[in-house]
Guanylate cyclase domain-containing protein
Amino acid sequence: MSLLNNYRTGLENILGRKTDLISKGLNGPYALLNESRKTFSSVPSIIEPDSKTILDFDSSQLEKFFGPNRYTFDSVKIGNHPDFNFLGENETLKHHCVSMFVDIKGSTRLQLKYSLEEVRIIKDTLLTLCINVVSHFGGHVHRLMGDAAFVQFVRKDQNPNDSVINALNAASVLCQVVSEDLSAAFESYGLDPIKIRVGIDYGSDDQVMWSHYGIANCNELTTTSIHTDLAAKLQHKAPVNSIRIGKNLIDAIEMKEEYFSTPTVVKNGLPQEDRYIIQSNELNYRHFDFSWKKYLKSFSFFRQNGNGKLEIIENQFELKASIYLPEEKSITIPYFENNNAIPKGYLIKYQLMWNGIIYHKKPQEKIIWEAYNSGKEAKDAKEEVHSFEDMYLNSTYCIAHAGYHGNHYLKCTIQRIHSQNIVLKFPIYVDDKEGIIDTLPALIREESKKLNQ
């Protein structure tokens, strides 16, 4: 199952509606342009409703698997970031931001085979996909530039680690959908597939300044930061269907080493490491390729099929997680895989489920719970693997403590005598500071009330 199958279906419908120009022998670019002038004129025309049907975006699957995102805006707007619109034209503010540039490659060639209207629909569909995906993960589209988009992941006075996580989740989903699901639609009609390149960098509070550029009635509110500029450069240097990131992202969430690698370039016929996106007397700043496929495979609902592509699966067995403060055990909030950074000191309860209901252990089964931690703190504490001292052996739930900064996962194994073992994994992020999200207890109460209404 594809994550956003309606987009592939819609594209196939458009790509399948071949114009009859080829049958007329009009298969050159100038012939196509001349023919298109018979249809389009300088007089504005109305976009037919049917031509927008493939733009319908169903976010239910994103919410079902990745969970709701508390940073999502109530409405989608382009331009000045809503959280910083209070700044006057001569005011500045230091505040962190994750900048992401997304570039869609290959749409220009479509004009050699399709009418202007059809090209517009395809390009509009791809940009709309980008807008909707990043918006779900709390991103704000600051600008559209032809086939590209500049996106800011930030909410004022909120956790910067969550901005990094949201950007990585959004970029990974975009790369998977465009490079695997949508590319197959183009290939099936003999077209070179659309490709995507993403660059992301993070600037901390002291590295980013928000202010207005321009003059009265002709200005924009944006960021001044080398890390905004580097995000664009990272996108430009990224290979197709890939994500290139700055080192600040790795440091912020203490990213697992398996998810990133040093880029290489070929010099004199030999591959060499390309370690720096910028190198000078003032700054040597490293960049890395982010392995979005390895990252998405860490989610329990993604698996790699025989063709090497990722697909969504519906598991009969699954783990449900909820977080709460030790002193407020009655107030919990659901936590979805890699959804946000859990503050240190919180507890996470994992419940073993089967077909949506709490699982009941069979007499011949053995249930084992383990936590696999990553990062320097866990390594220093010699807690990279935690067995819970068999406290939850054969239990259908487990309670873990968010104690170490990094990206970890909980593993549940159901050992069976007469059939294959069931192995479930649940990835989480833990913040680098204890109690960094002072509003979370209040948020938990608010969300709990909504869930109980």
Q: What stands out?
A: The first strand starts at residue 93 and ends at 94. The CA atoms of residues 9 and 433 lie 45 Å apart. Confidence is low (pLDDT under 50) at residues 18-43, 447-453. Residues 160-187 form the longest helix (28 residues).
